[in-house]
Write a structure and sequence with these properties.
This protein is of the alpha/beta class and 338 residues long.
Length: 338
Amino acid sequence: MTDLDAFITGLPKAELHLHIEGSLEPEQMFAFAQRNGVAIPFASVDEVRAAYEFSNLQDFLDIYYAGADVLRTEEDFRDLALAYFERVAKDGVVHAEIFFDPQTHTHRGIPFGVVANGLLAGMGEAEERLGITSKLILCFLRHLDEEDAFKTLTQAQPWIDRIAGVGLDSSEVGHPPSKFERVFAAAAAMGLKRVAHAGEEGPPAYVEEALDLLQVDRLDHGNRSLEDPALVARLARSSMTLTVCPLSNVKLCNVASVDVHPIDRMLELGLRATVNSDDPAYFGGYVADNFRAIAQGRTLSKRDLVTLARNSFLGSFLPDDAVAAHLARIDAYAEANA
């Protein structure tokens, strides 16, 4: 391990863009399938990994939804969450705000409570055993209609005090944020934070809709904002956090390679960019892998990496006193490892 590798591993960080279903490793897929008697279209772990080659977001989503079918019980969701936290504990992650897609499961006949209770159990155990705090964000699937999203928000009511916010994910092109304006307003009235995927494959106009119509507190991806200088200035002036996912951008062919990833340009433009893994089991790396990839590909300095880590807490939904404590730990770590 190089000095920079070690620095990245030890750097305290938060992860703000993680789809918990996207942390389903091939080995887990097989284990859960066997446990639940679910047939899957792969004969081996190697076959699954070979299928993880995508040319666009929809290619990925097709296998993502197929993989999620093995998740059936509270124990499955608890084990899935706990495995993620155990993995990222080794990456220096001390806080995570994780997405889940209840419609992926309720449409298969899995009750909302099975999903929520399982994930919350894993999150609770991770905090108790690993010291990692976390928050849960309910994402609406944008390829479904807003009525279905409202139904999901209603189903969430018994757990709403344990859900930090709502998000918007799945197929972006052709499903603008404006499609979900009313349900996001309802979520805001309930006191929930709002985030949305925008500007990954969709145009800068989708980012503007997320800001103006959904009134998001945080922007997921947002890469294509760079095409609009006025939008960049707006994002910088408002200190809007962007949850950037470098390895995902490359894997889904939105960026040609890590060597040309715009993460450093985002920082230079004054954007509050963060580094995240998105769907690490499918995209080839957890959060520290993403940090290492961009550090090498874009020759980032330790100072840049510290800025990205600080941004992850500044953009989190933690209370101010907790954010201040995390920032102090980062600064102390940076000074001791300069």
